[in-house]
Amino acid sequence: MNELTKLTPKDFATDQEVRWCPGCGDYAVLKAVQRTMPDLGVKPENIVFVSGIGCSSRFPYYMETYGFHTIHGRAPAFATGVKLANPELDVWIITGDGDALSIGGNHTMHILRRNLDCQILLFNNEIYGLTKGQYSPTSRVGTRSPSTPFGSVDRPASPCAFALGSGARFIARAIDVNKFLPDVLKAAHRHKGAAFVEIFQNCIVYNDDVFAPFTAKENASNQLWLTQGEPMLFAGGTKGITLDREALTLKLVDVVDGNWQAAGVIVHDPKNRAVAHMLIDMPFGAFPMALGVIYDDPRPTFESAVIEQNAMASAGKSADLQLLVAKGQSWQVTKEPHAI
Q1: CB–CB of 200/124 below 8 Å?
Q2: Same domain, 155 and 289
Q3: How many CB atoms lie within 10 A of CB 106?
Q4: Is residue 132 in a domain?
Q5: How many domains does the chain have?
């Protein structure tokens, strides 16, 4: 038995007091991540958690790994520097709907399109919790908050649609207290490239139970958990998703006696970007909430391209700082400057 197999979740927990509001979904996500770490086969000293600003961004304090609590919306920039400095490090970005999609929207877009090899966990509670409950980019129309006392009139951003439009090659959704969250985290870690995971996280103080229509135990039938190569079934296998090939849209079908083939239920192919887009945009209420790995189609990573480019540029050359300094236009001062 080697050193890695002896690690437990406790090996990834610090001695810091975990300080979130009692009942916050962040506790469940933290525990899920700590339970996941020993199964990844990565030493704690080779793992880095990077966060921006927000409730979720306290995360690095509670992980017995390297970590950076950085500035609002800029965690992707710090993470990019870490990965380029040492590509062997396992980099995780912890962010929220405000941190990643408001002030940090630009940085989130570019780390996704560049495809830096990292895991991006976006905690979405559809509210600004740290600054006392203002509406966020993902808040729904009508959300009442200190900054929208009559209800928000903004149309909310969809984190997964934003990620797909930004060129992300791995997109997944999960729920803070759901038992499948560790499986989603492991799938994100297996993906070579920028893996984007939206986690529905309950803010018990400022936006309690906003996701209850599909996260509450009694509403579990409204969850569509996607598995590669498996039919898109939900509600205990009594309903499924099929493709209307004429309208090029998804539609619901009833499944009788488990015969999903006869009902035309489609099998999940995470490499199908068009279907992934439709799954992300399914209107909840008329459709279930698509969860699990929605899209997974790897391509070369940003840091691998940078390393290859640098290797080509330096091939056959030797490092000579003096030669570099003297290269190009230069001059020599031969007289003492006049006194002023």
Answers
A1: yes
A2: yes
A3: 11
A4: yes
A5: 2
What the block records as the tokens of 278 is: 């439709």
Are 21 and 204 within 8 A, CB to CB?
A: yes
pLDDT tens for residues 292-320?
Answer: 999 999 999 999 999 999 999 989 888 88
Question: Within 10 Å of residue 23's Cβ, how many Cβ atoms?
Answer: 13
Considering the domain architecture, whether residues 76 and 131 belong to the same structural domain is answered as yes
pLDDT (tens digit per residue) in 197-208: 999 999 999 999
Same domain, 295 and 183: yes
143 and 258, same domain (yes or no):
no
Assess contact for 225 and 237: CB atoms under 8 A.
no
User: Could you give the angle at the alpha carbon of 120 between the alpha carbons of 119 and 126, nearest 5°?
Assistant: 155
- Are the beta carbons of 181 and 175 closer than 8 angstroms? yes
3-state SS assignment for residue 101: helix
Domain of residue 244, residue span: 231-266
User: Are 183 and 282 in the same domain?
Assistant: yes
Residues 310 and 315: their CA atoms lie apart, in Å, by 8
Q: Are residues 169 and 235 in the same domain?
A: no
Specify the pLDDT at position 78: 98
Predicted local confidence at residue 329, as pLDDT: 75
Separation in Å, CA 305 to CA 117, 172, 207, 297, 314 = 11, 25, 42, 18, 14
